[in-house]
């Protein structure tokens, strides 16, 4: 489906995703790389979920939250990468209007879930390090379940209003989305209506979620750092900090790229830069998470080694 007539005010039946607009041979190379990244991401996060479910040592609040983070990561990458891979090997890069809206919705659902969960994980580390005697009471099973349920609920509800406001819009002119997935702002640019309210609402919601989550995370780590600096034992400081290092690394990458994408003004920013940051948020971070948490976490490494030993013994 090509360009639509400027005078047409019909609802589009489909959009065209431009993806990366590379020469064919480079596009096939990128396809192979992204396919490998996607498979490793899914396999790595499934491994973490499996280890947490099977190993008694990992059945604690910290790893329960990590298990949910891995589940969110799987859903997050699945919302955009499979369609992008299909587009890279297909001559047709079309996606239906409803399919585009659905992809946009679920991308922001799981992104929001993860954003809020990172703040919950920071709070968990704060309680564990700053109030260790009360940890079992504060972070009991029911509290953890409610916190995680709140993350999922907020994730599914927060994009509802902006997505509903897409339906009354008319689309005229081009139906080509200059992106590799159905990003909300990219879809609005194709509308011939006044979309100022839509953009403002989406920006406000994104900023509230991102900045409030970032505030909780930063506040938690300020208290954690103060507590660590008060410790007399150097070994104790290193051991305590190592339990937070994985989360700090993941949170820094995720918050940095997300705030750049959805909370800062995009005027004057090239599409290539936006696509590169979207790749960092949507593909690189989920890909790195299993490695960051497994390589920097002794309990996860021990559980993985024990799991391999049991398989060999069978």
Give structural notes.
Strands 2-1-3 form a three-stranded mixed beta sheet. The chain is globular. The longest helix is centred in the middle third of the chain and has 34 residues, at 97-130. The chain has 314 residues and is mainly α. It has helices spanning 24-54, 61-78, 81-89, 97-130, 135-138, 141-157, 160-164, 184-188, 196-229, 234-262, 271-295, 298-313, and strands spanning 14-17, 94-96, 176-177. α2 (61-78) packs antiparallel against α4 and α2 packs antiparallel against α11 (271-295).
Total number of beta strands? 3
Approximately how much helix is present in the residues?
over 70%
Q: Determine the structural class based on helices, strands and strand pairing.
A: mainly alpha
Indicate the mean pLDDT: 84
Low-confidence stretches: 1-9
What's the order of the H and E elements?
A: EHHHEHHHHEHHHHH
User: What is the straight-line distance between the termini?
Assistant: 55 Å
What is the count of helical runs?
A: 12
What spatial form do the alpha-carbon principal axes imply? Answer: globular
> What is the percentage of strand-forming residues?
under 5%
Radius of gyration: 22 Å
The spatial strand order of the largest sheet comes to 2-1-3
Describe the main β-sheet briefly. 3 strands, mixed
Key features?
314 residues, mainly alpha, three-stranded mixed sheet
Spell out the blueprint of helices and strands.
Layout: E1 14-17, H1 24-54, H2 61-78, H3 81-89, E2 94-96, H4 97-130, H5 135-138, H6 141-157, H7 160-164, E3 176-177, H8 184-188, H9 196-229, H10 234-262, H11 271-295, H12 298-313
Parallel strand pairs: 1-3
Antiparallel strand pairs: 1-2
Helix pairs in contact: 1-2, 1-3, 1-11, 2-4, 2-11, 4-6, 4-9, 4-10, 9-10, 10-11
